[in-house]
Write a structure and sequence with these properties.
The protein has 275 residues and is α+β, with helices and mostly antiparallel strands. Helix content is 19%, strand content 23%. The protein contains six helices and twelve strands. A hairpin with a 3-residue loop joins strand 2 and strand 3.
């Protein structure tokens, strides 16, 4: 029988199984955060035609600006996708077989427009009672299997009561979400995650989540990464990674991380014991 070494601590397993998320504090050093913000602000201010492909800048609602595929534009974001502290948790949730299939930057300006809780999926809606294999969650025999994970990397401070909002434990709920559930800090049902620049939230995308109202004068800025089980899931129907026509803009290790594979990837080997 193949033995899989879990890179999660027992406390992390307990907490993630109970709540559906973990917050890693002070993961990205302040100088690295400053470097990232300098690059991102450049991409935000230059003409859209001058943004290096395959990066794409777009607006979502009046308050959100996205820049997609940032890891193809600067090594800082490739390093972030393979960051050992992030990879340790992501690997521990995917049987050491993660694949990066989405990566973007999001800027949110001050707003109070209503948001709606959602769960992420692959675009195919399963009938009631069925488990979605693209977004499954199981725990057994000392391991957690979470086939669809997101990381939310804070590049600016996120005060209490604003920013990222979620319903703890909802990754395991099988009942209809109440229609009037507010996307705001409303404990104990929904909470926001106060974060400092350099903190990272890692969560099951089957967790009810969204952005609560942003009340700060300066914008919220974060990197959003999604990882999925590498062995047999592929999001190419949604323009998924890797982007072969731009393969020369990323390292071999990054290309491997974005690819389907049943082998243990370099990014994972780096965080395994005795590797």
């Amino acid at each position: 029988m193949h033995t899989i070494h879990s890179t999660l601590t027992e406390e992390e397993k307990w907490s993630f199984d109970l709540h559906g998320f973990l917050v890693l504090r002070n993961i990205i050093p302040k100088d690295k955060v400053a470097e990232m913000l300098k690059v991102l602000r450049h991409w935000l201010t230059i003409d859209e035609a001058d943004i290096p492909p395959p990066l794409k800048r777009s607006r979502q609602e009046p308050c959100k600006t996205h820049i997609d595929h940032v890891q193809y534009g600067h090594p800082l974001f490739e390093e972030l996708a393979m960051h050992p502290d992030i990879m340790r948790v992501v690997a521990g949730l995917t049987m050491n077989a993660p694949r990066l299939f989405h990566c973007n930057f999001t800027m949110m300006t001050k707003h109070d427009s209503p948001q709606h809780f959602h769960r992420d999926d692959s675009g195919f809606k399963f009938p009631p009672g069925f488990r979605n294999p693209h977004n499954d969650y199981q725990a057994a025999a000392g391991h957690i299997y979470c086939s669809h994970i997101a990381t939310w990397v804070a590049l600016v401070d996120v005060p209490p009561g604003t920013g990222f909002c979620l319903v703890p434990g909802s990754h395991k709920s099988l009942f209809q979400t109440p229609a009037d559930l507010p996307v705001k800090h409303a404990p104990p049902t929904s909470i926001t995650l106060p974060m400092n620049a350099g903190d990272v939230a890692i969560f099951s995308t089957n967790l009810l989540h969204d952005a609560s109202p942003w009340t700060e004068e300066s914008p919220r800025m974060n990197i959003f990464q999604r990882y999925q089980l590498s062995a047999y899931f592929n999001e190419t129907g949604k323009g998924g990674y890797p982007l072969d026509e731009h393969r020369d803009k990323i390292s071999e290790a990054q290309y491997e991380l974005e690819s389907l594979s049943k082998e243990v990837k370099v990014a994972v080997k780096r965080i395994l014991p005795d590797s």
